[in-house]
Amino acid sequence: MKLYISVDMEGITGLVDQTHVDSSRHNYDRSRVIMTEEANHVITSAFDQGCKEVIVNDSHSKMNNLLIEKLHPETQLITGDVKPYSMVQGLDESFNGAVFVGYHARASMKGVMSHSMIFGVRNMYINDVAVGELGFNAYVAGYYGVPVLMVAGDDQAALEAEELIPNVTTAIVKETISRSAAKSLTPVKAGKLLHEKTALALQNQGRVKPLTPPERPLLGIEFANYGQAEWANLMPGTEILPRTTTVQYQAKNILEAYQAMLVMTELAMGTKFC
């Protein structure tokens, strides 16, 4: 079996605010150690279950957070920025399953550090389905026929995963109190949970179907203010819906929609506030 693991940071055990996930802040260095250990628990369990190949994609911010020298020696790491497919770089039809670790709830929803790509996004849609990073990434996996077998993160990320992906295994390492507070397991307890849940997810892989995306998806991104929508609308082929901050793009497939989302959110970050 060949397994793909995408590791974000906001859903990692004990991490609750920007001081944990911003490389310029005081809690970041200890947080990336916990993040690496958390990835290792999943990787080790996967190999214990008979996986022959495990590919890990660092999926947070500049995507160079995981400490490669501390990762399981048999894994391979996709690291760095810029990646054409960001959080799902390297994912293709050769994988038997995918696991999302350290994930969080989508923008405008309850959850620790909930957001969708950038903090200027209120909502993202594929046709009429509201998605965040978790859902969008699961659709890309589904395009390749790859099921998302497990999602690890806070309780709200788990709820989002269960609503989108029937029979997915979830590993809840912290419970949301507010967007910047949680009741968390310790790393030792979380590690045991992740090891057990990964084993369960791989044993139950036959019960999980890929999240199949629509053939011609309509991407919609609702931004926090009109300036962000204007910036995103600089991408050819987009339109701003009248009297809204929503920018739409008709894509030929989910891969094009994903890259359009990356471009639109990157442009939107150019907005200046005054």
UniProtKB/TrEMBL annotation:
User: Per its record, how is this protein called by name?
Assistant: D-amino peptidase
Which branch of life, at top level? Bacteria
Pfam families in the record:
Peptidase_M55
In its UniProt entry, the species of origin is given as: Rossellomorea pakistanensis
- Asked if Protease is a keyword of the record, the answer is yes
Keywords tagged on the record? Aminopeptidase, Hydrolase, Protease
Could you give a GO molecular-function term held by this entry? Answer: aminopeptidase activity
Q: What Enzyme Commission number does this protein have?
A: 3.4.11.-
Q: Which SUPFAM superfamilies match?
A: Dipeptide transport protein
The cross-references to InterPro entries, in alphabetical order and at most eight, read: DppA_N, Peptidase_M55, Peptidase_M55_sf
